[in-house]
Amino acid sequence: MIKVTLAQLNVTIGDMDGNVRKMIAAAQRARDDAADLVVFSELSLTGYYPGDLLDEPHFMARVSVGFEALLQASRQMPTMHWVVGLPAAHAGPGKPLRNVLRVLRGGEVLLEYAKQLLPTYNIFNERRHFEPGPDVAKVLRIGTEQVGFLICEDGWNDDGSAYAVNPFDRLRDAAPDVVISINASPSHIGKREQRHQIFAAASRRNSLPILYVNQVGGHDQLVYDGASFAVEPKAGVVFEARRFEEDVTTLRIDAHGFKAADGESLPAVPCEGLPTMAFYRQQIVLGLRDYARRCGFTQAVVGSSGGIDSAITLALAAEAFGPDRVTAITMPSVYSSAGSVDDSQTLCDGLGVRLFRHPIADLVQGYSAGFETAFGAPLQGLALENLQARIRGTILMEYSNTWGHLLLTTGNKSEMSVGYCTLYGDTNGGLGLIGDLYKTEVFALARHLNQAADREVIPRAILEKPPSAELAPDQKDTDSLPPYEVLDEVLKHLIEGHGLAHEEREQVEAYVAQLVQQPDGAALVDRIRRLVARSEYKRRQAPPIIRVRARAFGSGRQMPIAAQHF
Ligand SMILES: Nc1ncnc2c1ncn2[C@@H]1O[C@H](COP(=O)(O)OP(=O)(O)OC[C@H]2O[C@@H]([n+]3cccc(C(=O)O)c3)[C@H](O)[C@@H]2O)[C@@H](O)[C@H]1O
Ligand SMILES: Nc1ncnc2c1ncn2[C@@H]1O[C@H](COP(=O)(O)OP(=O)(O)OP(=O)(O)O)[C@@H](O)[C@H]1O
Ligand SMILES: NC(=O)CC[C@H](N)C(=O)O
């Protein structure tokens, strides 16, 4: 029997000093639990993923200093093994670095294993910096057990579908008693269940118990949900760590599998994860909190239109920062409905968020007059519509500059897909919270927030009004776009592809198949396809958004702009 402590930590990319402090604190807890080893996540020393910081000599010099500090700390706890992840120099041909795991004890490195399968798809880009490790299993005796090692993607090819190499093959030959897998696995809807399924299958096929340790926390657009777990060949997933939080937990491993630190059996792990909207909420709140914390923001500002997008953005910001740290600004123009101000007031009163009023009619008039004087033509049509959005965007940026608030942009995935937003206007901002949610999902999230709180967090008037940009008289989104129920299904078909879970994919494909049978249905799909392609330039200039789906705009969908898309 050995005791192992999984250290699911929220490390910060590049903060080697802070990460080492966190790792040492977790190791001390492991020592207090009399653990034989403490396991940290993939690239735990640097945080995942450092990107081109890996090319900076200063960065790698700080990695060396941090690693020395870990070695030094391991001398103070001489009987315990530390499993740490870091980038390490590679002397052979190819890239100068490898993504490695080292086992330390008493100030010595007992083993080094280099990641073999380097993900370079979707949001991952590891082959840009790392050379793959050789197809060799590394196993070490720790106490009574033989322990084998894997790093994240190494465990994702046991069905042989993605790479020529399957690291499980060599590992199975080496026949360890248990496998430690260190990971940095970002979450999106369905990801936890996908991990369980892949690792339960690999555990069964190879007859190997596996302990899977993930990092937790938000890093730019990605959120890591933690949810580290243990899986046994026969029983499947037998343990799960906390989700969206740090967790340092000690388990026992023996010939019969995993047990709690005191030898008791572990509570059952539910198969089902969080319902979709509860998941979105937690993912976004953690993503925002960590983004703001790491960038030094303690307050946020949002333009409040009385519409659903700004309402949900304000509600999530109030949850992440606390309502007293969030400012809303309502900026009515001559086209704004009375509801835009009144509903904003009701919303902000309910949230406990301060609402400022800054009408823009005079500014619009002043700009228009200046334009006409200078150029001899009036501002009209789309240019006049966009001017309102840009004046609002400028006021929000000036507020942000003056008081140091993070401006949250409110675009959802439906409008970002088709470019239904004004550049340098409502796209202004530092971070988008709902940019990976389709408009129909924004409504569903609002209903979820109300249900969960058992009150109208999002007032009924906001939930029930037809979406409108209110930039022209009696304007409705449906004047320019198909109803969101239709648009969203077509967009999922065009954008999400294999990122959709099986059931949702079937639903979407069936919907689109029947739509194209309708008169004008095929033309509508074509029109939407063109809108998506043509608005790539807007998405390239848009702020980062928090990813909740497998295929989010940003690094996960790298499309050319000046190109023929179909
Ligand atoms: N490929 C390309 N690369 C770089 N720039 C490109 C470009 N194609 C056009 N452009 C430029 O982009 C600009 C046009 O884009 P932009 O100024 O944004 O304006 P535009 O896309 O023409 O109009 C904004 C649309 O969004 C709608 N809207 C606005 C605000 C809020 C909401 C809402 O409900 O949320 C909806 C509005 O009703 C209108 O349909 C022009 O300067 C054009 O030259
Ligand atoms: N009258 C307004 N006062 C303050 N901000 C506004 C106003 N109108 C628009 N905005 C800002 O611009 C964003 C885009 O708003 P718009 O109403 O044009 O479209 P939307 O995508 O339907 O958003 P929402 O559902 O929040 O209304 C809003 O979310 C809000 O941040
Ligand atoms: N860091 C990694 O290797 C992550 C890749 C892996 N397939 C995941 O998303 O979990």
TrEMBL record:
Catalytic residues (UniProt): E42 (proton acceptor), K115 (for glutaminase activity), C152 (nucleophile)
GO process annotations (BP): NAD+ biosynthetic process
Binding site for ATP: G303, S304, S305, G306, G307, I308, D309, S310, T410
Record GO terms (molecular function): ATP binding; glutaminase activity; NAD+ synthase (glutamine-hydrolyzing) activity; NAD+ synthase activity
CN hydrolase domain: residues covered: 2-255
GO CC annotation: cytoplasm
Keyword ATP-binding assigned: yes
SUPFAM superfamilies from the UniProt entry: Adenine nucleotide alpha hydrolases-like, Carbon-nitrogen hydrolase
Residues annotated to bind deamido-NAD(+): N386, E415, K538
PANTHER family (alphabetical): GLUTAMINE-DEPENDENT NAD(+) SYNTHETASE, NH 3 /GLUTAMINE-DEPENDENT NAD + SYNTHETASE
Annotated family: Belongs to the NAD synthetase family.
Function: Catalyzes the ATP-dependent amidation of deamido-NAD to form NAD. Uses L-glutamine as a nitrogen source.
Protein name: Glutamine-dependent NAD(+) synthetase
Annotated source species: Hydrogenophaga aromaticivorans
